[in-house]
Design goal:
Helix 15 runs parallel beside helix 17 (about 335-350). Helix content is about 80%, strand content about 0%. With about 425 residues, the chain is mostly helical. It has helices spanning about 10-30, 35-40, 45-50, 50-70, 75-90, 95-100, 100-130, 135-145, 145-160, 170-175, 180-215, 230-240, 240-260, 265-275, 280-305, 315-335, 335-350, 355-360, 370-380, 380-395, 405, 410-430. It contains 22 helices and no strands. The chain has a single domain (about 5-220, about 230-430), classed as Growth Hormone, Chain: A (Up-down Bundle), CATH 1.20.1250.
């Protein structure tokens, strides 16, 4: 039986897997910031969701340049470039705080996620190439299983080091402050928000040095790309239907993940405030539910990685997509805590999806995988485009007795439907 990770790649596998945790931290310390920035700058949910537009926009813009960079240089160079940009973006929170306005933070997020785009474009195909094709999807699921561990850390830091320490004034009370009072509260809150990003920036500098010194270029599973041309590569990828539809499925998967994890704060806050809880306490409690959701996601990833030994990836993807559809219907039509429980449970369904779609889409791309990886990372744009659309629904008035927050989850519902269709297509194709 082929090993999931061969001995010669073990050190590189461990270090690259650490990168999965590092970008998981960035993703999930950021999701609660939509609500935090909305309060700090007295903005609508829609304006606060620009954080996600900047964050995932960086993924989209840098994925293809990152793939071309890795193809020209090496996987090690891609990792170092990603860590460097990630660190620069995190440390840019220092001047952004000094300026004291919203848009410098969006620029910092964009630079930070240009680094994450380099990391993901480099790390995912490298993990796939680190051994036999038969174990590639399991290997990627194993590495991706450490991503939610970083995510849990990011959520915990967001809750304990940011949300719990922000000024407890509610959104309505902040609206009554005069300009001098508002600036004092805002500056104090921005200092609280910026501190964890500066610390992670320092950690990244250390990890950059570790990769630089310990990972050798010859240890990387480089593919010979000499003679490859960009145009013909893109044409071949476009003609590959599992890949082409995989990019589309990945767009909607990332969208549903970010929507469910970002707006669980709004969903839970509304429920707990209706029960008589103060706004800040309701936000902190909602973030605890978000952490529970991520813990479920993490455990489910390991369980699904085990199940892949016995169940074909496309069939398991389809089954979890169907369960996701049912749970999101509960989120929409079940008001109160039952709807929140459904929203938390959705994370169990999502755990398998990103690496499985990724592995299926790249399965038959051969030497085109490096450019193909860029398309799948660009599909992370779904996390940039769809949350602001959901935020606009939240800022609306609801429909037919269904609150605007509940109604907004029709977008995650549609995303799961697309994923189910992709799983069915792959299953049908492989039977031929």
């Amino acid at each position: 039986m082929n090993k999931v990770v061969e001995r010669r790649y073990l050190l590189a596998f461990v270090l690259v897997t650490c990168c999965f945790a590092l970008w998981g931290f960035a993703n999930d310390i950021t999701n609660p910031m939509v609500k935090a920035f909305s309060k700090i700058f007295r903005m609508s949910v829609t304006d606060g969701a620009l954080v996600q537009l900047a964050f995932y926009g960086g993924y989209f813009c840098m994925a293809l340049p990152a793939a071309l960079f890795v193809r020209k240089h090496s996987f090690k160079a891609g990792l170092l470039m990603g860590l460097g940009l990630y660190a620069v973006g995190a440390l840019m929170f220092v001047p952004a705080k000094a300026i004291g306005s919203y848009y410098p933070f969006l620029i910092a997020y964009f630079v930070l996620t240009c680094g994450l785009s380099f990391l993901e474009t480099t790390a995912n195909p490298y993990i796939l190439a680190m051994g036999s094709k038969e174990t590639a999807t399991r290997r990627l699921n194993l590495a991706q299983a450490f991503n939610p561990i970083g995510s849990l850390a990011g959520m915990f830091v967001a809750m304990q080091c940011i949300q719990a320490k922000l000024n407890p004034l509610s959104t309505e009370e902040r609206a009554l402050l005069n300009d001098e009072q508002f600036d004092a509260v805002k500056n104090a809150d921005l200092a609280v928000l910026s501190r964890p990003y500066v610390i992670i920036g320092a950690v990244l500098v250390v990890f950059f040095v570790v990769i630089l010194l310990l990972v050798k270029n010859h240890a990387m599973a480089e593919e010979n790309t000499a003679g490859q041309h960009f145009g013909p590569t893109v044409k071949r990828l476009w003609q590959n239907r599992p890949y082409r539809y995989g990019v589309l499925a990945q767009f909607f998967y990332v969208g549903v993940q970010i929507m469910c994890w970002t707006f669980i704060i709004q969903y839970g806050t509304r429920i707990f405030m209706d029960e008589g809880m103060a706004e800040q306490a309701a936000e902190v409690l909602s973030q605890r539910y978000n952490i529970v959701a991520m813990a479920i996601f993490c455990v489910s990833r390991f369980i699904c990685t085990f199940l892949l030994k016995y169940i074909h990836p496309s069939k398991l993807l389809t089954c979890l997509g169907v369960v996701g559809v049912v749970l999101v219907l509960g989120v929409i039509f079940w008001d109160g805590r039952m709807g929140l429980y459904c929203l938390v449970a959705v994370s169990a369904c999502m755990s398998l999806m990103f690496p499985t779609i990724y592995g299926i889409a790249l399965a038959d791309t051969g030497e085109d995988a490096k450019i193909g990886a860029a398309g799948l990372i660009m599909a992370i744009l779904g996390g940039s485009v769809l949350p602001p659309l959901q935020a606009r629904i939240i800022d609306g008035n609801g429909l037919g007795g269904v609150s605007s927050v509940n109604l907004s989850f029709i977008l995650p519902l549609l995303c799961f439907v697309v994923i189910v269709l992709y799983g069915c297509f792959i299953t049908k194709t492989e039977k031929r």
